[in-house]
Design a protein that fits this description.
Structural class: mainly alpha
Strand content: under 5%
Order of helices and strands: HHHHHHHH
Distance between the termini: 52 Å
Number of strands: 0
Radius of gyration: 18 Å
Number of helices: 8
Largest sheet: none
Shape: globular
Helix content: over 70%
Length: 205
Amino acid sequence: MKFFSLDSGFHKYGTILFDLIVLSAFWFITVFATFGLLTPLANAAIFNSINHTLIEEDGYMMQSYFTIYKKKFFKSLGLTLIGILMFGMASFNIYTVTAGIFNAPFLLPLYLLIFAEVTIIFLYATALLAQTDMTIKQLIKYGFLLSNKHILVTLSCIASIVALGYLCIMYNPMLMLIGTAPLFWLFTWLIYTKVFSNYYLDKLL
């Protein structure tokens, strides 16, 4: 039957869906097995894999994923250290207000905004890590500049994170496993085609 042939849309999109689920599993294994320490590396790997196979259509999903592990492992550790510091400070500020240690609830929206800003900076930074040979300082710098310059793309990314989080909390936490790679597909499409395509990234070095 044509429907089940190797050239059919069913086979093509079924394969993509399966690959996305496998990518989600690899991402979760990397993140949770290392207690979050290799999150920047996992992010860069999934960005690279989706960009090459689904956006540019010029590579194999698993090969593109593990290539980043070989090339960007040590540089990702630099992002990890900075991330621990920045997320730690942002989380501590939120905790002191919500726990009543620092009686200034009017600052909570500001602290949540800072946490969201740090999140989106690192999202762009890990996308740049997969695409360029920037230094750690440049990754953070251009992660900040590009995420704030292209605010509509950034807000779309934040909205999609909130939407997936809401679905997981309200309906089924397993949606996180299923939805992570499709979420990164959306991030990749937004950041790579709507932001990075406007620049010669190698000239930003």
